[in-house]
Every structure is written in C-alpha cells, then in structure tokens.
C-alpha cells in the first residue's frame, strides 16, 4: 500500500500541484512543498478535457451520494467520521430528506475542463534538505495531478406526503426533471409544460449545491431550469479541483510516513449502514412531529424530540470513535477489531436497530391512537388543552361552570426506554436492554375509541346544554387509556371510565349506562346520571337485549361516605 498511488475526490478542498497530503487523516498539509513556485510552473503539463454529463437519482443514502461524487471507500469513511469537512457541491453529502414519507429527486450536472499534472521524472531527484522536509512531516503523499471542472446538484423535494404516494410521485418527478436539458436551446430557456406537469412542478421545491456562486439560488423548478442553462459558462469561468492524483512520498524518500492499512470493506459497510439507520430514525421521527396532535400534546412531542436527540448524540459518539481509531488503524498501530467491537456492541444496546424500531412503532401507534380519538370527539365547541395546568385555567373561568373533559390517562413524559438510552450514553455501556416501550394494547385501544364515541354522544343530550368541553392529557395510572371527567365550578365531581357498551339502538338521554363511575361529590347525581338514573349513586350497565332500560347492579353507600379515591367497582 505504501507504494500505491491514490486517486481521491477533492470535495471542495483547495488542492494544488505539489501540495502535501496526509492519507492517514485524509487532510491537506498546507504551506509545505518540495519545490519552489518557478520549478512547479516549469514542470506542469496541461491538457484540455472538456466533458459534461448529467444524471438523476432518487436515492438518499450515503452510498448513492458518494457514488455521484466519485468518492472512494476510504475517503467516504473519513467523511462519515467527521475527519473530512467538505465544501462547494460536496455539501450535498450533508443534506438529507426531512421526512421518511417525502419524495426526493436529485439532478446532477457535472463538467470537466482541463487536467494538470507534474512531470515527476524531471523533479523527483531530491536533495538532503528536501528529504529532511519529508522525514520531519506527517504527510504520506504529494499531489501530482488535478482534474478541474465543477459539479452542480439540484435537489427537488416534496413536502410530507402519504406513504403510498412516495414512489408514484418520485416517478412522475423523475420524468419531468429528466426533461431539464431539453429546455435549454442554445443557451436560451424554452419551457413548455402540460397542465399536469405545471401542477406537479408546484408540489416540490428546489435546493442547489454547486462549486460556484449563482446570482440567486433556485427554489422552484422553473428557476432550476434557468440556472441549469447558465452552468456551462460558469464552469468555464470557475472550474475547481474535482479529482486529485496522489503519489506516495515513500517513492521519493524511503523514510517518509506511510499509509499501512485501511478499513476492510465489510466493516466499512457496517459503519455506513449503522449511521444511515440512525439518520432514518431521525427522519421517521420528523414524520410524527409534524402531526397536529403531537403539537397539541407536549407529552408526545417531548418524547419524540428526546428520542431524536439521543439518537443524534449516539451517532455523534460513534463518529468520534471512528475518527479517533481510524488514523491508528491506517498507521498500523491498532487492529480494526477494536472498531468492529464498537459497532457490534450496538446489537445489545438500547440503540440497536430492533430497540429503536420497536420504540418508534409504539410511539407511532400512540400518536395514531390519540389522533383517532381526537378525530372522534373533535368539534368546534371542544378545546384541546396541553396539560392539567392549562385545563384548570379554563375550568376556573366563570363561563365554565359545568365542564366535561376527555382525558388521555396514559400519555406520560417519563419513559424508561429513553432513560436507558441516556444511561447508556452516560457510560453504562454494558448490560442488556431491560426497558420496554409503552404499547397500547388492542383492548385498551378499543375501550379508548368507545370512550371517545361516548364523549361525543354526551354532547348531544339536553342535560348537557351549557357545558364546556375539553380534551386533555393527565396521567392516571389506575385507569390506563382514557376517561371522561365532569367538573362543577372547576372541581372534579366524577370520572367515567370506559362508558357505554355498544348497542344497536341509539342511547336515550334518560338511560345513560356507565361501565365504571368514580363519584367525588354527592351534590351532582342529577347532573351526571340524568333524570332517569336517580341520584343514589347506583352503577348501571347495558342489558343483554336491545332495549334501552338501565339495569341496576348494586346499591352504593352515600357518596359522602365513600373515600374520594375509591371507585364503584372496588365496593
């Protein structure tokens, strides 16, 4: 490997002929060279190499982006670990889809202009001073050739769409974007679109990453076409290094530092897959964070945001470990097995793919359940409040003398899985994953939907006239899922859990039937039960037939004799 020449992508870095390069860290060594300016200028061989091409991609992986920029494996790993900072068009590497359910199509224009190389045969005989410069430094290679040109990337993105529409939309976008070169006629823009294509173009935006500065960056399809038409002129005037040829200094001086090893292809693929997987978790989180119910309930939003941050912290820690170990492995001072262990350990950590996917699945289900319930109970007279404090603020208002609230009782900010992830990052790297994410069972889901339907029905009864209605999230571990709370002058007077068994006939306003009632005040029996239920505090359930009459189950003690935290079913 010490005697092998290398070809690397410039990635916006300012390479010049004769410059030193440290292949161990994949960094330029500025300010050091073996030859003066005149010697270099006298021994440069230049040839023109005018080419241009374009390609289209719908992939957003590190592998596909690296391929478009002709980045070889070792340099790609240096970029992923943070050893290499990119500029110009290579900033495209850092751009990723915001949402999983988002269509993205990338149009790349690439052009080359000329190739310059050093006549090494004429300048390879070094004196002692030049050899000493090599020995004292950290550089492993010298730049002997540079291909000039430019890259330009037009990245077209839709907003978040339905999952089933992503591929179909990408196909339509690709067909339209493929026409961009045909709209450029001798440097003049001539855009003719069908009505369908015009409507499609309105659905996506554009971002530009290039090796030159445009007067204004395009943000729409038409602006992208106009910018594309001017690229050939810009490339001729502003060409930059695209590809660089490096010769090992070991050829000039046997005592020069050298690149001994590199990461195996298998480990590189594993590292790339892990880092890409963590990015996908981030975009998957974004899909849920845009849902309105997540905005309405901080318990959902905070959990997703915390999960996203922890995944980002973990990814950063992995990158730091790669950046630390990679140079030692390349120098032959350390075996790659130590780095492989870092990524193998992920499988038994809270950050394993299975654990992260399980958490996201449970959280997405939770969001969907909340959304389903809110859709059932929503109405212009129903107000969503974030928490108990905001609910009390509304309940204490004079106009809220009588109020009912649909309460999500299991939306907790505390999350043992997220705590396990944090503890792991804090240093507890060994041990198995013990925490399990909260999962709303099918039974609880069914009862929550029933409760939501019952809450909606309550609003139609004449006894409910003048009531204020709210939706809130207040933890109640005794009654997981959802409940309906009734308030009088801001004071909780009863809680109904899993009300109304489903029947064929509609409910009569005088025959309300509750599965579980938690009474809190004796003075409100007539308010809660209605005129047909009485005010004795009896529990009712649906009869087996289709009739509407309520069936008394047992006689209860007077409400003032009942402990405030005891429910009917406990008696």
Distance between the termini: 82 Å
Largest sheet: 8 strands, antiparallel
Helical amount among residues, as a percent range? Answer: 25-40%
- Taking all Cα atoms into account, the compactness measure Rg is 34 Å
User: In percent, how much strand structure appears in the residues?
Assistant: 15-25%
The strand count comes to 18
Q: List segments where confidence is low: pLDDT < 50 over at least 5 consecutive residues.
A: 499-516, 521-571
InterPro entries: Cytolytic_pore-forming_toxin (IPR052090), SNTX_MACPF/CDC-like_dom (IPR056072), Stonustoxin-like_helical (IPR048997), Thioredoxin_11 (IPR040581)
Pfam family, one: Stonustoxin_helical
Descriptive notes:
The chain has helices at 37-42, 62-68, 73-81, 120-123, 128-136, 166-177, 195-201, 221-229, 231-237, 265-289, 292-296, 298-330, 337-344, 353-377, 388-395, 416-425, 442-458, 525-529, and strands at residues 6-9, 20-22, 27-29, 44-57, 102-118, 141-160, 184-185, 188-189, 204-210, 240-248, 382-384, 402-408, 468-473, 482-488, 491-497, 517-519, 540-541, 551-552. With 571 residues, the protein is of the alpha+beta class. Strand 2 and strand 3 form a beta hairpin. Mean pLDDT is 85; it is low at 499-516 and 521-571.
Which terms summarize this structure?
single chain; alpha+beta; 571 residues; 8-stranded antiparallel β-sheet; disordered C terminus; 21% strand; Glutaredoxin
